[in-house]
Amino acid sequence: MTRHVIRNSVFIVCLTMAMGLSTGCGQSDHGDSDHGDSVETRAGKIELELGVPSEESAQALFDSMDFQRACQAYLWALPAVGFEYVLREQRNELGAKNGDVVIYKGHRDVSRFLTPNVTTPYIIGFMDLAEAGPMILQVPAGAIAGSAMDFWQRPLTDFGMTGPDQGKGGRYLLVGPGQEPPPKLPADVKIVRSPTFGIGFFYRALDDDPAKAEAMEQAIRTYPWSQRGNPRPTQHIKPDAPQTATLPRGMDYWEQLAAVINREPVDDRDRFFVAMLRPLGIERGKEFKPEERQRQLLTEGAQVGELMAKANSFDKRFPGSRYQPNAHWDYVIMADPAQDLPDYSQLDERGAYFYEAVALSKGMVTKTPGVGQAYLGSYRDKDGHAFDGGKSYRLRVPPNPPAQQFWSVTVYDTETRGIIQNPQQIADRSSRQDLVANADGSVDVYFGPTAPAGFEKNWIPTVPGRSWFTYFRLYAPLEPYFDRSWPLSDIELVK
Question: How far apart are CA 179 and CA 4, in angstroms?
Answer without folding.
Answer: 51
